[in-house]
Write the structure tokens for this entry.
Amino acid sequence: QVQLVESGGGLVQAGGSLRLSCAASGRTFSNYAMAWFRQAPGREREFVAGIFWSGGSTVYADSVEGRATISIDNAKNTVYLQMNSLEPEDTAVYYCAAAEVITTRVDGYDYWGQGTQVTVSS
């Protein structure tokens, strides 16, 4: 049984920062790619950032490039998403996901967390 639990969301002002965390448990993830997605009300779930569990290559959506950093703490089995210069358009539920390879497709991911709400006020 694989479990992903997100935390760190909340209410921030435009221009502020948040660091989201995703704690993974139940299995080892050394051969997995990890990613963050987000979904706003009435919109499709969209890719934000991805990284291999072993480190190395990262991928970012154009909408967050330069403002977001995805990273992994292997010892803690935790994936992070640091977001700076937040905008109201960043408001969404943010989800952590795991897959065998990095992809921007929602259906490419095998495991999902329950999400954490990020709200950016202007």
